[in-house]
Specification:
The protein is an alpha+beta fold. The N and C termini lie far apart (about 40 Å). The protein has helices spanning about 5-15, 85-110, 120-130, and strands spanning about 20, 35-40, 50-60, 65-70, 80-85, 150-155, 160-165, 170-175, 175-180, 185-190, 195, 205. A hairpin with a 4-residue loop joins strand 10 and strand 11. The strands form two sheets. The protein has an eight-stranded mixed sheet, with no helix packed on it. A four-stranded antiparallel sheet has the order 4-3-2-5. About 40% of the residues are buried. The radius of gyration is 17 Å and the shape is globular. The longest helix has 22 residues, at about 85-110. It has one domain (about 5-205).
Length: about 210
Amino acid sequence: MRPPSAIAVVFLVGTAAGCIVNARPLVRPDGVEAVVLLESTVMPEPIQGVARHAFFEVREAGGWSFESVEFGYVTRREVRLHAVWRGRPAEEAIPCLRAHAPGIEREIHPHYLPWPGPNSNTFVDRLLRLCGLHADLPATAVGKDYRGVIGISRTSGGTGLQLETPIFGLRLGLTEGIELHLLALAFGVDFWPPALLLPIDPGRLGFDDR
């Protein structure tokens, strides 16, 4: 029996990467309490299979509609929900997101690079940290780990540390697991919920994000 070719292996991994167990449905909460949603959408062709654009949607207490907080805009397709904050945490986060977003956008804009960053996912990662919102962006959110030439920081999930350069990076966390970054592409294991992390959309093989 001949061993599988490299092309066949890539095909199988790519097909499997689309499997997420217990995928979280994209349902915007009803009611009148404040809500912050962390979401992502696939990028346009030709990078739709390897990159996602992250963004926030917010609704103030007593409001009826959601407002996007993001760097630029990408047409919404195959949107995934990664985290939800309600009530008091959302009430505190919304003014923080609005206050810091313009400054981060001005900082990133003249230096914007789709790869390795800074870009729209760098923008979201910085807001998560500044506003005390603990969540992980998908493995295919290229730019989420951009720290310049070299940088060390807490993980956005809040339970680990990461060391990053444009060539190589390593992230270790109690819940984030182990993630290796090679040329801004992410490979690893998420401890909770358990999943393999892959640089192929939607970025994980296993259970959905918490």
